[in-house]
Amino acid sequence: YLRLLFDVSDLDEEMLPYLDLLVELLGNCPTKKYELRELVDEIRTVTGGIDFDLTQFRNYRDPDISIPYLEVSLRTLVDKTEASLELVREILTETDLTNHQRIKEVLGETVSSKSFDVIYNGSEFSAMRALCAFDSASVFNDLTEGIASLQTQSEIYNGFDRSVNIISEKLNNLYESVFEKKRVTVSVASPSGFKDKIDKMIQSVLDQLDRGHKTEERVVLVPRGYRNEAFTCTSPVQYVSLCADLGEIDESFSLITPLIARTITNEILYQEIRVKGGAYGAYCSVIPGTRRIVMNSYRDPGLRGTVEVFSSVYDKLMAAFPDDDKLWQLIIGTFARIDRPLSAYQRMCRSMNFAMTGKEYSDLCKERDAILSVSKKSFEDAVRYLKRIKERNSFCVIGGESAVLSSGFDFSSVNNLFD
To answer: Per-residue pLDDT averaged across 197-215, rounded?
Structure first.
């Protein structure tokens, strides 16, 4: 298993939708050596898969610092390693981005796929948008894979024929500058005794990425501040997301966030929004290490009532506070996600995550011990920060126009999702 991470933190907002498009083009365009069908066949024959994606790593000590990367991941058998790495090199250095018709096709497929996802899996999009109020990492996500990227890429597609040369130039500039040796961090999982050999193979690929391009200063994306947004479409159900910034928190809260999120999901949101409200689902998560909490409903016939449940989650939790037996059940359920067997690839990913975020094994043990030692009293002390949800929240709704307009909310903006 191989992961190549290329630091893209110096790209400004304007280039991020094009960066996402570049990710979609990699492996989906011909190269100097292969026609597209030949390239696809070669990848399937030689490798277990070559994937391209955008990812981010938050600094564990300062979660407001998040560095984005373009990730290239490879799965292959030992005896196919050299041929597989040659395919990676071919894609990263010899992809043909001059075929404008192919670029337009991939862009159209990308817009179509996101349009489908936002209708049928809208909670991810609404949560991403709500988090943009406080979280710069979510601004990056929105610009590359969220509602903002859908809107921008739709505009690019609709005006493609008029601006084809500008679009092509931006993509080629990105392609030449991003895949640069000085940007890359490498992670490998391989059989013991194979390390030295594979190191030489990887170094050979990286040497061909030494193009001499300079990297610029890191661009810090600015959160968008408190605002409540609605995006309408022809849908009989809604996706509702509310994000809150809890302000200054201490370790009593931050170390046990998985338990807090599970308790809110199981004890409040399931009962109030799924059972009583009729939504297909509702769940809560806390961004690890941060003071930001987000709650979502999935295919929800309601809207205003859901936001009111999200806003009053602390009061509802206090009214139905779990007893000792229930709290222990929640702890056990939380550990079903924490303590689980890891494959070689998962262990590699965890190791890289530690290296990129500054998190250490001792931190993991501290979090684990904190959840195990929770008592009813310490849990009640920790969740007191949830009182702040009412005062420091921002929400986003994706749903039917009639439901949005009749909700009685004073939205900062109401836009048709596909205008």
So the answer is: 88
